[in-house]
Amino acid sequence: MNIPRQKKGDFAFPSYERKRVIIRTAAYFLISAAVFLLGYFSTGKKENLLTIVAVLGMLPSSKSLVSVVMYFKIPKFSETVYQEIARQEGDVPVIYSLYLTSYRSNFPMNCFAVRGNNLIGYTEFPSCDASACEAHIQGILKQNSIKNITIKIFHEKARFIERLNQLQALEAGKKESEILTLLCDISL
For the whole model, what pTM was predicted? Predict the structure, then answer.
């Protein structure tokens, strides 16, 4: 089975990455268990050097398990919403299915689009605090010396699509790809 590779910003990335992280974590735990069993069966007792190696192997395994837990926290994004927005995006740079993380809360975002000095986002999840998300992104942009960006997060898909169509008439900016890359960097 050949699964096409996904990158952050693609619609299918969260489910692809969840599967990849689960497989990686299982492999890490299996390697540690195999090293422990190899040491146990070769010496006949638990107290050997391979037991120490197996225990140390549990550190990356446990770290990877944390990633598994975080990927299970990401809600499932609607494919119909994705298809509807993808039909409207035109030549405006757009990324999909991001789960932004911050110290206070996390923000599931269906879509971000940027044109010039305007960044817009859409979330289908009512629990996502749009104003806190806007403030978080503004702070991250400021830390990375990207200034004068207007950010608006929408809960209403029709208003988002209307604004997306308005952005198509604007001139492209110099920092659009940098902004989208930064959003990918601060998300799972």
Answer: 0.79
